[in-house]
Amino acid sequence: MAPEMRQSVALLAEVQMRLEALEKKSARLHQRMELKISRQRRPHLDQRSSITKTIPGFWVTALLNHPHLSAHIDETDEDALSYMTDLEIESFKNNKLGYRIRFHFRRNPYFQNNIIMKELHLGMGGSPMSFSNPILWQRGQNLTAHSEPRKSSRGVYKTFFSWFSDHSSPGQDDVAQILKDDLYRDPLRYYLTPLWEPRENDESPEEEEEHLDRVAVDAIDVAGSDDSEQEDDDE
C-alpha cells in the first residue's frame, strides 16, 4: 500500500473509532432514557391494568379486533382467552436485550396457571431465543394437542396457544412483536375498533383523534347508562 493510502486509512480508522465511541455513548444514553421513561410509565400502566380488570372481556375483545392477532385465534382459543384478566410486557434491564410477556387469567376450565409467560431475548452468541413456562392443562383440555396451522390470505398461522409454546423461530416471532409494539401500547384502540366509522379520505389525523375521543366518551356513556338501568332494575 502506498504511503499516502496508508496515511488516509489510518486517518479513516481514527474517525471510525470516534464514531464508534459516540455510538456506544448514544446507546448508554438511550438505555438510561428508556429506564427513566419506564419508571414514569409504570404508575399509568398500573392504573390502566386496574381499570381494564373492571371491563369484562376487555383483552379478548382487543385481541379479536386486531387484524393480525385475530388470525391466530380459533373458537376454542377465544373461549379460553375470555378468562384473561391482564397483559403485562416488560423489557429486560441490566443490558439484557429482550422482553417478557405475561398473560394473567382467572380460574378457568382449561388450565391451572394464573399466569403464563413467554420470554424472548438474545442468547450468549447473539442468537434470538425464546422460552415459555409450561401450561398446566386440565385433563382433556390441551388446546395444542390437535391444533393445525390454518391458511389465510396472509399465510399459514398457528393457533394462539400453539404459538405460545412454539420456540422454533424466535427471531421471526411476529405475534410477540405485534403484542409488544402495537396492542400493548394502545389496547383501547382495538377494544373500541367495532365502534369506529371509516375515516374519510380528507380527514386529518387530528380529526381522527377527535373522533376516537368521541367514541371513547360514547362508550363510557353507554356503560354508565347500562349501570343506571341495572340499578333501576334492582330497585
TrEMBL record:
Residues 224-235 have a biased composition (Acidic residues). One of its GO terms (biological process) is nucleosome assembly. InterPro entries: NAP-like_sf, NAP_family. Keywords: Coiled coil. Residues 5-32 form a coiled coil. Residues 195-235 are annotated as: Disordered. GO terms for cellular component: nucleus. It comes from the Eukaryota. Belongs to the nucleosome assembly protein (NAP) family. This is Testis specific protein Y-linked. It comes from Gasterosteus aculeatus.
